[in-house]
Every structure is written in structure tokens, then in C-alpha cells.
């Protein structure tokens, strides 16, 4: 598990052996059971996690009970309520395990120490944030406001092709901002 973690980190920036040892020194393996909450909406987050095996949904629940899934996170992903961590504020999102999920967890406070001590870990973090929370986010914001539900579904299939079969229809519909019935109609029209 730790080898896959370091490989995932080094996709963003190469680390020295000293930085690798320090980073591995702050991670703790955990198993999150299916249906368990890693972070609850309204809770102030304290940690990040690397997903070695499993699947999370990242969602917001409105006062009326409606749920909007912002993103799914699967193997070789890093997950946190990043904005809330950076601001040290309660999260607007819940992170829930959709399967039994094996993670390496590291505390934000420990990670901040490593960012100061090891520039290559800081560059990993900058590169990760730029790719996943800046560059990848812009097209999604435009698509949600402009594209049809069918086009959004086709784009969903491209982005999540490896996990679509692991998701329930209502989860995909929530991500797309449509009803499960609408999703069934879209799937049927695409088959024809």
C-alpha cells in the first residue's frame, strides 16, 4: 500500500528518499467500512487520505434532504474537504465510503510541517491542487451550467469509466443533477 501511495505522490513531483521516509512516517492505514462516514458535513476536517482500494462519494446535503454529489473518489486518489482544511472551517461536504475502502490517512498538522521542511512535498501538493482543483474544475463548472443532461452523462462516463458499474443509478443521477428516471431515459436514448 505504501509503495502505491508514494507512486501516486510522485506522479505530481519526485521526492527524495528523506522526504519519502518523512511522508511515510505520518501516514496511518485505516479501513473504512461500506456506508461509514469519513467526514461529516459541518465537521471541521483534520486529515487527508490516500485511497488504496475502494470508493468514496463527496456530497452536500441540503436542509430539505436533497443530496448533490460533487465528485467520486476511487483508487489512487487523494481525498479531503480541501477548502475546509485550508480555512480550518466546517466542511460543506460529507465523505462517505460506498465500498469497504482502504486508505492511508495523514493529519493536516503533520502534513503542514512536512510542507515547510521538504520543498518537494510542497511542490507535490501545489501540482496536485492545480491539476485536480483548478484545471479539472473549470470545465465542470461550465458544463453544469450549460450542457444538457445527456452530454453531462457522456462526460461522466468518460471521467468515471472505471467506476460507473460500481455506482447505483441514484448516485449517478445525483452527481448529474437529474432524477434516476431522467437517467434511465438518457441511457435508453443513447442505446438507440
Automatic annotation (TrEMBL):
The organism's superkingdom is given as: Bacteria
Domain Cyclic nucleotide-binding: residue ranges: 11-132
Coiled-coil-forming residues are 146-173
Give the record's keywords alphabetically: Coiled coil
**What single Pfam family name could you report for this chain, choosing any that match?**
cNMP_binding
Q: Check the record and name the CDD domains matching this protein.
A: CAP_ED
Asked if the record carries the keyword Coiled coil, the reply is yes
Q: Which InterPro entries match?
A: cNMP-bd_dom (IPR000595), cNMP-bd_dom_sf (IPR018490), RmlC-like_jellyroll (IPR014710)
- Gene3D superfamilies reported for this sequence: Jelly Rolls
- Name of the protein this chain belongs to: Crp/Fnr family transcriptional regulator
Q: Which organism is it from?
A: Zunongwangia endophytica
